[in-house]
Amino acid sequence: MASILRVDTLTDASSNNSVPMATVASGSAKAWFHIDNGAATTIALGDSFNAANSSGITDVDTGIYNFNFGSNMANANYSLTMGSQPSSGFPDKPQINSQATGTFQCRQAHASDEVDAAIYNATVNGDLA
Prior knowledge:
47% strand; single chain; mainly beta; 4-stranded antiparallel β-sheet; 5-stranded antiparallel β-sheet
């Protein structure tokens, strides 16, 4: 049977540190993705939170990926932070192509070309639907 705990504030045992529940609910990451492409020929999630189970990531093309949420965001105005480790000695740059409530697309760019990243990380903050 499921239980609900209703509190306004979380406080540590000594009552020295507390945080309002609104801060916990609004301030925590709603999704994160870690991809370790390494020497693999097929990109896959290494670990994640709130990723769609079977389609958490889709390899669209060289250096272009769709990240799919398990639970949608309330709108497309969420904060998205990305980082990557280049697959070569080039300083590759992750860029956002698009954001929607259930997915975002990014590309790994070097100059004007897309390249696959060795490691890719993304964190999403905002409101869930």
